[in-house]
Amino acid sequence: MINTVAIQGVKGSFHHIVSREFFEKPVDIIECMTFDRVVEALINGECDAAIMALENSIAGSIIPNYAMIDNNYLHIVGEHYLDIQHNLMALPGQRIEDIKEVYSHPMALLQCKRFFRGHPHIKLVEDKDTAEVADRIQKHKLKHIGAIASVLAAEIFELDVLAHSIQTIKHNETRFAVVKRTNSEVPENEINKASIKFEADHKRGSLATILNVMSDCKLNLTKIQSLPIIETPWKYAFFVDVTFDAYADFLKAKSLIEIMSPSFKLLGEYKNAKL
After folding, report:
1. How far apart are CA 199 and CA 45, in angstroms?
2. Which of 6-10, 95-99, 183-187 has the lowest mean pLDDT?
């Protein structure tokens, strides 16, 4: 039973939206300004689960989050894909012409660059969180200041949306992982996706051989991400996501890769959210 969840950001953030959409029942939120703090809250038992963004369809993988899940022996128990819609908002009664500065997360600013080219009078300022800026504008009644955040943030902090969906690429999805301290509670017959980490021997064909095992065992490789092994220069670990129709096929592949790889770790078994 999950009652409390740690998220990166404040209420109204995209992580908060995921918490509302993923869980069947309402959960209490622990707001964290950094992913380090999210992981700390989970490890210390302050929450039952955590939500962490893993990759964006435009920006790619958030590699430090993969490393944090791995290094802290956490387990992915679910995933959720969210359509990211960025909106320009400010205190009620203002127009875009009145806005002098817009504060937001660097990624949000980057994804909305084309929109602001049409409004050269607005200065863009990097900040730590999208929804937190919206909260600050409301708390301090900051006029002539805008935020880029979700419609939910505008509703929570009572701001006017001056422009909807201002991101340059309109189809912009982020994949989020639901993470716990223990392994998945998903019934075996419902598991059809897994995240694993392995190392390959530093010799010709070793990675290809492991990938061939996955193919032979009827696994569909949906993601592969390399990460340097800090202790061993020029050697890499691989984070891999696979989907499958039969859990037995995954178990067969897993048993073979464990033999072939110098190091193997199961990061999570869960339901595929992208069907």
Report:
1. 31
2. 183-187
CB neighbourhood size of 139 (10 A): 9
Judge residue 93's burial from the number of C-beta atoms within 10 Å of its C-beta, 0-12 exposed, 13-18 middle, 19 or more buried: exposed
Q: Categorise residue 264: left if φ over 0, alpha if ψ from -120 to 50, beta otherwise.
A: beta
Closest CA to 8 of 161, 177, 141: 177
- Rounded CA-CA distance 257/5 in Å is 33
Tell me whether strands 220-228 and 75-83 are parallel, antiparallel or unpaired. Answer: unpaired
Phi, psi angles (nearest 5°) of residue 211:
-65, -35
| Cβ-contact 129, 10 below 8 angstroms | yes
pLDDT digits (tens, 9 = 90+) for 25-79: 999 999 999 999 999 999 999 999 999 999 988 778 888 999 999 999 999 999 9
Percent of the chain with pLDDT over 90: 83
- Spell out where 105-211 has E strands: 123-126, 145-149, 160-163, 173-180, 193-199
C-alpha Rg value of the chain to the nearest Å? 21
Burial (0-12, 13-18, 19+ Cβ within 10 Å), 92: exposed
Nearest CA-CA partner of 264 in 209, 211, 196: 196
